[in-house]
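Below is one such protein, fold included:
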Amino acid sequence: MYSINWIPLGGFVKIFGEDGDKNNDPKSFFNQSLKVRGKIIIAGVAMNLLAASLIISLAAMIGLPEVVTEENQGIATEQKIQIMTVAENSPAKPILKVGDVISEVDDQSFNQEQEVVTYLQSRGGQEVKFDV
C-alpha cells in the first residue's frame, strides 16, 4: 500500500493481514497470538517515542534563540524598545503602530522597557513626545 499524506510527517506501516480478511497465512497479523500482536503494536509506539526524544534532544543540543534578560543584557549588540500593542482608548493609537521602535521619549533615551513604563506612569495624563 502506498499513499501521499497531506502533511508528510510521521509514518505508518500497513501490517500484513491487519485488515482482518480470512487469511490463512501464518505470518498474517491476525493469525499471531495476542501477545505477539501486542508486542508489534507497542514496538510501533515505542519507536515513535524514541524518534521524538531523539529530535527533541538534538534541538536542545543545537540550541534555541534566547531573550535578552538582566543576566545577558551586556551581550546584546543592539537593544531596542519596540511597541507590542497600543491600547484601544489611547490618544497615541492613530500615531503609534505595532512594531515601531522607540528611540527617545521627551528627548530622553531608555534602555529597558520598564524604564519607559515608569517614566510614562510618572507623567500621568501629560503629553509626551515619542521619537520613533
In short: The chain has two domains: 1-67, 76-131. Residues 76-131 form a domain with the Pdz3 Domain fold (CATH 2.30.42.10).
